[in-house]
């Protein structure tokens, strides 16, 4: 089995999730390639303590990302740092000759993303992808297969979103994701938006125009020192996109919703496709089921329409030792995403169309969409993407 030696830059939540996934790679008995975390880096030394305790493979700990990138034992890096650091860190990783899994939004703004893509262009020998776990849930993989087999027929409408309520409390102290200088002017779009965009973009459903409504609901937050400071990032965003179906050339509406203040939502991804022959719905509120409706036309009443709910269980793309009847969770999605990354790095192509991570081209399209959405909000008008 091939081993790819990784460095992690940014030892927060997602860095720990990757290290945990690497530690249980034995769950994937058919994989011919595996990751090994050999180096970690974080500006905060305490953030690396967990790795020292839990990852015996780690041989380098440093507070300077340049030292990690200079480590010849590191073949690939996972970089999970605030958005304002993406351009500097990602380009440095490319120049150091490291394969790269980066976090969304792949640059704080379109200018930064353009610079990152230029760096990728200078290093075609390197494999580069962006993180997004959502499409690796079993129900989403099934929807992907349905799209590939053209089971929906003509697309009527698509709705995709990532909504949660973590910022509903007005007394929650401000953090970097609520500061423009670190998170960027996209706000919730940059932090959440690539997730609902991943599957539509992979399907070839590309927005040609957008009308966006963005909301800054909590305009100030506690500073953690007894005072309050401005909170200027967008909390919620709703995008109505005019979208073209590449097979038919026909237009259909697609909504993309990202919300940090969504009452009643803990942390929900959802995806809906309405077609003339079949329709499908999925939400992580019911992560182990999918709703499918098949239209059986004809008859004086226009045919029968009935939603059926199907339990999915552990119906995964990358075979797991977990029994098929058992339920699937977020940590399983992380494992499947990383299997998708390593499989494509090793084989040169994804196992199937919807089992690959976000490509640099798809991340670039998200920046065009989010930039157009910002202009749409400012002008209160529909803007071309």
Pick out its properties:
29% helix; Rossmann fold; alpha/beta; 11 helices; 385 residues; 9-stranded mixed β-sheet
Shape: globular
State the order of secondary-structure elements, H for helix, E for strand.
EHEHEHEHEHEHEHHHEEEEEEEEEHHE
Radius of gyration: 21 Å
- The third-level CATH topology of the largest domain is Dihydrodipicolinate Reductase, domain 2
Average pLDDT, to the nearest integer?
Answer: 96
Low-pLDDT windows of residues:
none
What is the beta-strand fraction?
Answer: 25-35%
* Secondary-structure content class: alpha/beta
**Total of DSSP H or I helical runs spanning 4+ residues:** 11
CATH architecture assignment of the largest domain: 2-Layer Sandwich
Neighbour order of strands in the largest sheet: 16-15-14-13-7-12-11-8-17
CATH class of the largest domain: Alpha Beta
